[in-house]
Design brief:
2 domains, alpha/beta, Rossmann fold, about 450 residues, seven-stranded mixed sheet
Length: about 450
Amino acid sequence: MEPRIQYAQTADGVSIAFWTLGEGPPLVHSSLIFSHIQMEWQLPECRRWYERLAQKRKLVRYDPRGLGLSERNVTEYPLDANSLDLEAVVDRLGLGRFALLGLQTSGPPAIAYAARHPERVSHLLLWCTYARASDWLRSPGVQAVRALMDKDWTFYTEAVAHSLLGWSEGEPARRYAALIRESITQQTLQAAVRAINEYDVTSLLPQVRSPTLVLHRRQYALDVEVARGLASRIPDARLALLEGESGAPYLGDTEAVVSAIDEFLGEGEGVAGAQPASAGAVHTILFTDVEGSTALTQRLGDAKAREILRAHERIVREALKAHGGSEVKALGDGFMASFSSATGALECAIAMQRAFAAHNESADEPIRVRIGLNAGEPIAEEADLFGTAVNLAARIAAKAEGGEILVANVVRELAAGKGFLFADRGEMALRGFEDPVRLYEVRWREGG
C-alpha cells in the first residue's frame, strides 16, 4: 500500500511533505539532489528498497523545500534550511531520537545536523557523499553534465540520471530522468546547485559524536579516497566499501547495502529501549522531570523552550550511555530509564545532576531537574516497562525538587556500603499508593 502523504511546517513557514513506513526504531531517509516521494514509490526498484529498509524499523522519507510535493515557492537553499526541513518532520512525528541517512548532496546537511544535535541523532549513515562540494565538482563527468543544465533541460535530466544511477542503467535511468523533471524546475535547480556548490562541513567532522557508517561503492563517480577521508575525520566512524558503480543504493547489489545498514543499526537499536526483563530480574527504574517546563514554555515560547529541553535530553542521554542505562522512553520534559544495577543508577543520577549544575553556571535559563529512583521487578512488554515498581519511581520523582535525587528505601539498601550519602526524608504519601513510602535524598554536591 502506498504510504500516506503528510505535511509538516518548518520554523520559517515552509510546508514539507513526508511519509512513514513500518514500525520500530526510526530511520530518517534524506534525498538525493532530486526528490519526489510519491513518484519514487512508483519506481519498482525504489519501492523495494524502501520496503526492505522498513522491515525492521520506521522509515521516514520527506521532500526538502522546493522539491517534489513540498512547497515549491522557495528561492534560497542555505545549508541550515535543510535542518529546518528535517526538524519540522521529526518534531511533527514526535521523534526524540532517530538514525539519519544522508545521500550524496544531502550528506553535508546530515553531517551538520548530527554535529550540532548529538542528542537527537542515534546513528549517522552516509552514502556516496562528501564533506565539501569541491570534492564532487572536480570530477570531469560531473563538470560535463553540469555544463548541460543551462542548455538543454531534457538532455540534461537524461545525462544526470545516468551519471547518478550508473551509465549501464537503462530503464531505471529513463524513469529517474522523468522524476527529475517532475521534482524540480530548471530555474529552481540552478538556484539549488549554486547553494550546494558552497557546501563545506569539513570543520564539523571532528564534532560528530553519533556512531557513523560511511558507505561507498568502489566504481562510483566520486573517488573512493573521498569516502576514506570522510571516515577518517569523523571520530570512530566505520567505512564500508561495496562493489558497483551506481550512486543509487536501490540499484546493483542492494542486499549488501541493506545488510550493512541492518548490522550497523542493529548494534544500537536494543540500547535505546529497555532490555527485556527476565523472570525475577530486579531493575532500578529512574525518572527525570524538568521542573516548571509548562511555565517555561509559556514564558519563553515553544522554540526557545524546545532548545532548553534539548539540552536536558543531551545531558540525560550522555549520562545513560556512560553508566550503562537503557532509555525506555522520552516523555517530552523527562525520561524513563532502566538499570540492572542500583549502583549504576545512582552514579548516573549523580552524574546528571552535576552536569546540569555545570550547565546552569553559564546558561541564560537554568535547567532544574527532579530525579526519582525505585527498584523492583517490572513487567516488560514491547520495549516498555510496566507495574508497581515503575509507578512508584514516577511518583518519587514527582516529590523531588529541582536539583534533587529521591530514592525508595530498597534502592538505598541495594547500594549499601557503596559510598553513597543518603538523608532520610521520612515517610511521604504518594498518589495511588495506600501506605506512605519512606524516601531518602541522595547527597550529590561536593561536601554533602
